[in-house]
Description:
Elements: E1 3-4, E2 15-21, H1 25-35, E3 45-51, H2 56-67, E4 72-77, H3 84-94, E5 99-102, E6 108-109, H4 113-119, E7 125-133, H5 142-148, E8 160-163, H6 164-170, H7 183-193, E9 197-207, H8 217-221, H9 226-234, H10 236-242, H11 249-267, H12 270-292, H13 299-326
Helix pairs in contact: 1-2, 9-10, 9-13, 11-12, 11-13, 12-13
Amino acid sequence: xxxxxxxxxxxxxxxxxxVPTYQRSASLSCCLHxxxxxxxxxxAYEIVIVDDGNDPQTQNLVALWxxxxxxxxxxxxxxxxxxPAAARNVGWRAARGEIIAFxxxxxxxxxxxxxxxxxxxxxxxxxxxxxxxxxxxLLPTDYERDAAxxxxxxxxxxxxxVRRDALVATxxxxxxxxxxxxEDSDLFFSLLESYARIVHAPDAIVVHxxxxxxxxxxxxQQRKSQFNALLYKKHPALYRSHIQAAPPWRxxxxxxxxxxxxxxxxxxxxxxxxxxxxxxxxxxxxxCVQRLTQTASNISHIADMIFTSALIPPLSVFWRLRGALRFxxxxx
Length: 332
């Protein structure tokens, strides 16, 4: 049920900001603070918070911010955890603005974010993406370095704008992307395939701090690889040109060497087993060294890299192939 927290009789704004959230009230509070400081007429925009966890603490937090805000703040609870793609669909379908701005609950939009994003919309423009600033230390962890690469990707949901009628035409986000992975690329590719004009708005700035990650986080992230298969199935040419030009053959070579070593040992071919385990060890060490290059050198991070470098290739291959089976597509 859509609960209009404040400004019930407000006219339709030009832009609606949709923010999906799931049990992160502290970061959401910081995000709301920045959204309510936008250098834009308060009647020109609304904020739609979609709570994927239907969390009373989140509802109370939004109500508190809405009570003191001049801008319309709306809270929409969603029963169960459906994922960010489904939550964003709930948000934009309930939104009243002609343009939908997307950001995340752990992001900090610049005061001029909405103004700069709206300025990009001439009559021909259907969508735009802004600049994402991701602060990292001089020597980041491997996880931080990977996360920072998102700043160079076009059209991420932490900072993008889409006309509402374009979302209606494309169907919005594909809810089969149940994790926060590739659902924005899917929408981007769908818009490109419809020959929509999409522009970059570099002055529309959002700061995206990297959340602290537990030891071994890269192993859990491999599960997202299954959604690469879905994106490839829907947009094979754009996937190869924008995401990954070829399968990660290094991972497949590492896994093949590991399987050969096991097979050789079980079949009594000791020479094959020794040679294969040696190749596996050499390739794994190279992979680990690459991940450690120009990253943090503390003992915990080094141990993390050694441990996870041995497990990432088989986990990644497993989830990629599982995605290929799940979404019924030939994908490596």
